[in-house]
Design a protein that fits this description.
Layout (H helix, E strand, L loop, with lengths): L3 H16 L4 E7 L1 H12 L7 E5 L5 E3 L5 E3 L2 E7 H11 L3 H16 L7 H17 L19
Helix pairs in contact: 1-4, 3-4, 4-5
């Protein structure tokens, strides 16, 4: 990937535009050890995962001096780049497209989407496919070459 920073910006901005949200998103391309430690610390799972998201605040409402307030939207998306690369190769996908999928997945998490229940997972997958399709990236949920793709659950 010649310019990963440009690709990261493209994916995050496209997802934010499609979801009609604005705010700050920080993306970190980390190693597996870092992501494993964060996953253990914050989710109790002592293993790397492909993507972690952390919403800003715990409270996402910030009062202003005038007494009114503004809603804050945004957060951190942490990708375990070695895991992303392994998963892409195992699924016969490009690392770029898999990374773009996981970035869109992260923005959806920051926007309140989740995949803990079948109906929620299906809604999230459909939204990922829609956003990625608008970006010209193939649907990661379509069966290809005997393997299924997608974000970790």
């Amino acid at each position: 990937m010649p310019n990963p920073a440009r690709e990261v910006q493209r994916a995050v901005r496209a997802a934010m535009r499609e979801l009609d949200v604005s705010g700050a998103v920080t993306v970190v391309l980390a190693d597996d050890l870092t992501v494993r430690r964060l996953n253990h610390l914050h989710r109790g799972r002592n293993k790397p995962t492909n993507v972690l998201t952390f919403e800003y605040a715990p409270a996402d409402y910030a009062p202003t001096d005038s007494g009114s307030g503004i809603w804050l939207w945004g957060g951190d998306i942490i990708l375990a780049f070695a895991t992303v690369e392994r998963e892409a190769r195992a699924a016969g996908r490009s690392v770029r497209n898999h990374m773009m999928h996981l970035l869109v997945h992260g923005v959806l998490h920051l926007s309140g989407y989740d995949h803990h229940h079948a109906g929620d997972a299906r809604a999230m997958e459909m939204e990922e496919s829609r956003i990625l399709g608008r970006m010209g990236i193939p649907n990661p949920w379509k069966h290809r070459g005997g393997r299924e793709g997608g974000a970790a659950r």
